[in-house]
Design brief:
By secondary structure, the chain is an alpha+beta fold. It folds into 2 domains: 141 residues, 60s Ribosomal Protein L30, Chain: A (2-Layer Sandwich), CATH 3.30.1330; 170 residues, Phosphoribosyl-aminoimidazole Synthetase, Chain A, domain 2. The protein is 32% helix and 22% strand. The protein has a 6-stranded mixed beta sheet with strand order 6-8-5-9-7-10. Helix 3 packs parallel to helix 4.
Length: 352
């Protein structure tokens, strides 16, 4: 039986501040509204978000994917800079989505922390909003979970969920890829959101560098350079797809240039990929990591994007046109190699 003379415990006493959560929702309303597309039918605060399908599709199908930011978040905690990891969260999903030709439609986020710091969460969600605006993708809803005792003070985790739409008979599945197709590479903005356990081990532990260290060829302090957000390729890749010049594409994430490009080949296709390692130069931030960590070149290619965030297979006769279109969209484009005849499952052959 409760003691009437003893103060009663509240949810806040247990570490969960409902008022802080309500304040956050109020602060992010404008961020969310800026991302809304005409198809959005609901506003923030409901139990579920409602969104219609865009017009112009004969037989639309939905494409969906999910991802997080990984241990790159550790650098946000160390630097106190939280306004870019939300962009990473969106980018990792929308870049996966567009390789099948899907147009990003809506995005949901999950933000979990030990104790909700409204200002920090607002910065993170502002980044998510910015990523959604760049991707023309509605931030339809999300969840903020305060889990005291589960996360260390000042730390949080992120997950994102993206839904897109594509014409059923026009979705790319690798079946269009042919031997002789040219492989184009789009430059990355850095490590994007993969390999950060090794990134931190090399720069911060093995080399013992400070986050404000300056490295040759790097314009920003180390901490800021490592937090450079993942490049979003939505406009350029979908422009190429809509122009009928994209046979397949691969977003270069975990597994790097070794494991990701073969995923764009058709199932059981008697094809492989030949990539010339001399067709692009390893960006300075990667070169510093390789040198400081004495990392084997093939380990670099298997762990990181190595400066190439997207690989696209285009028909050889339209390669010049594809390069021009992509450059007009602001991309740095490299001609990496070609699709070759090979035994199924041959993967990538690196030359040069």
């Amino acid at each position: 039986m409760a003691d009437p003379n003893k103060p009663g415990l509240t949810y806040r006493d247990a570490g969960v501040d409902i008022d802080a959560g309500n304040l956050l929702v109020d602060r992010i309303k404008k961020i969310v509204k800026r991302t809304h597309r005409p198809e959005v039918l609901s506003s923030i605060g409901g139990f579920a978000g409602l969104c219609g399908l865009p017009g112009g599709y004969r037989n639309p199908v939905l494409a969906a994917c999910t991802d997080g930011v990984g241990t790159k978040l550790k650098l946000a905690f160390l630097t106190g800079k939280h306004d870019t990891v939300g962009i990473d969260l969106v980018a990792m999903s929308v870049n996966d989505l567009i390789v099948c030709g899907a147009q990003p439609l809506l995005f949901l986020d999950y933000f979990a922390c030990g104790r909700l710091q409204v200002g920090v969460a607002e910065q993170v969600i502002a980044g998510i909003g910015a990523g959604c605006e760049t991707s023309h993708c509605a931030l339809l809803g999300g969840e903020t979970a305060e889990l005291p005792g589960f996360y260390a003070d000042g730390e949080y985790d992120l997950a994102g969920f993206c839904v897109g739409v594509v014409e059923k008979d026009a979705a790319l599945d690798g079946s269009q890829v042919r031997a002789g197709d040219v492989l184009l590479g789009l430059a990355s903005s850095g490590f994007h959101s993969n390999g950060y356990s090794l990134v931190r081990k090399v720069f911060l532990e093995s080399a013992g560098l400070a986050l404000d260290a300056r490295l040759p060829g790097i314009d920003l302090p180390l901490g800021e350079a490592l937090l450079t957000p993942t490049r979003i390729y939505v406009d350029s890749v979908l422009a190429l797809y809509n122009a009928g010049m994209m046979h397949a594409a691969s977003h270069i994430t975990g597994g790097g240039l070794v494991e990701n490009p073969p995923r764009m080949l058709g199932k059981d296709a008697a094809l492989g990929l030949r990539i010339d390692r001399k067709s692009w130069t390893l960006p300075p931030i990667f070169a510093h990591l390789q040198r400081l960590g004495n990392v084997d070149p093939m380990e670099m290619l298997r762990t990181f994007n190595a400066g190439i965030g997207m690989v696209i297979a285009v028909p050889a006769e339209r390669a010049d046109e594809a390069r021009s279109l992509l450059r007009e969209k602001g991309e740095t484009v490299y001609t990496l190699g070609e699709v070759i005849e090979a035994k199924p499952g041959s993967g990538v052959e690196f030359v040069g």
